[in-house]
Write a structure and sequence with these properties.
alpha/beta; Rossmann fold; 4-stranded antiparallel sheet; 22% strand
Length: 293
Amino acid sequence: MFHVKQNIELKDKNVKVVLETKDYMVSGETFSIVKREGQSYLETQPVPESLESYYESDAYVSHTDATDSLFEKAYQLVKKITLKQKVRSIGKLRSSENKLLDFGAGTGDFLQVAVNKGWKVYGVEPNEQARNLASKKGLHLLSSLKELKGEQFDVITLWHVLEHVPNLQETLNRLQALLKPEGVLVIAVPNYKSWDAKKYEEFWAAYDVPRHLWHFDREAMKNIFPETLPQTKTKPMWFDAFYVCILSEKYRTGKTNWIKGGLNALRSNLSACFTKEPSSVVYFYQKTPNKSL
């Protein structure tokens, strides 16, 4: 089922291994988090030949609407709260058309809330199972950005998606082209310089190898786009620390410990009040008008 392609690049003197970690969710295989010379973000190596198989698990809750276990029930409850927060965060970015694209739309819950707030929504989701669940909610999701020919959007959102895309630079270029002049791109990603990342190290759930191919910090996200798409602001995602810490605690000990995970999440969020390094960060970028990409 799983087959990791041998990776000869780790022998490259320009590639430094930062840490070794495992796919604790699905396969149990070991992967490296590496830093490439001249690159501001980290990457996962080796990259499996078939990434799709690493998503085929009931444990991967973002592609399901499951509420069977206590953890899944808690996840879905918190998701309802954060969905409203996400839609509020883009509320002031409206235009006459209110065109919104959610890339990596999952089962479509964010778009459902956005529709109710008056947005004209489009969604892209590569996972067929998630698209099928979205269709039952009345949402037609596309499988690729390439299907959006001739379209441009006021707002494009990626809620914990950028770390998953195989062709990072190609995706970034495509997202810029899909934005209207003065359009806003909203990207949420984990922050590997957060307190909880340092606490849990190789057990940090937000490394999520090999599904997370890229790993970002605030500096990397500040410089990821050219001056035609400058970063305008950032926001912490406070709830993410709880999900990540509870799951990280399970990876480290083999048992779910809600209390210890929750306390560590509080410590991470408290630390972030001073360091500005929360577990996850939302970044806002606004396309500069009258400049070619």
